[in-house]
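Exercise 7.
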Amino acid sequence: MLATLAAAVPATIPSPDRGVWHLGPIPIRAYALCIIAGIGIALWWGERRLVARGGRPGTVLDVAVWAVPFGLVGGRLYHVATDWHVYFGPGGDPLGALQIWNGGLGIWGAIALGGVGAWIGCRRHGVPLPIFADAVAPGIVVAQAVGRLGNWFNQELYGEPTTLPWGLEIYRRVDPATGLEDALGGVALDPTPIAVVHPTFLYELVWNLAVAAVVVLADRRFRLGHGRAFAVYVAGYTLGRFFIEMMRTDPATRVLGDLRINVVVSAVVFAGAVAYLALAPKGREEFAQPDPPAGSETTEREDA
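Solution. The predicted structure, written as tokens, is:
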């Protein structure tokens, strides 16, 4: 029976044969669907956690109206800035900088500019930003995990060749109409892999789920407040990203000799998160979100 089971389990992890499907002239991109699903999970979970902390139902969605667009723009700006040569270097494609559907969102830019959007939304709805950040922290890192599935569909962000049983099969994708290679929009017509590599996107996915669990457990055990739950998320995520980033083989901007820029940024952000954890006030602040002013848009929506 064990021999039969072993034979049934694949020796490697296959990649999807494509990352884009077409509904008539409309392309349905797996990467975009994963991002949308992740945002949905973050909103749902963040809502539950904020209400438990004294927030009004619907506030997370109200703040997300500001935070999500800011975060998407910030994530894309960071990606383009750190991989500028792909778009603006010799032989680059400047218009590709706008094609977010082809992948390429930098978490650092998303968090930084998304935080600006969240700050605006929080001010408009009477929620201190640290309380909001603590509420949405585990949902954000789970959203990142779900987003990493998009890298699987896109066959991107992987590591060196490996013989380990969880190696990822990479296929040559082509445009069926022309036979020309198309790594993102094409289809794998030949099931023979051209490489078997470390699935670094999967390592990060698993790590992110573990970080979410740590944030929740630490929050329950120590009643984290004043932004410290968010700092645990940032410290945990950057710790894993530091090592996983060094395993990746995709082109990246190099700094300080031959270090990938995201390795350096991970180390700096990790240090900042740990310092914040050490210096921030202990315990959880008391909070009761004030009712919106009479006649405001929020009041009208709640009365409808």
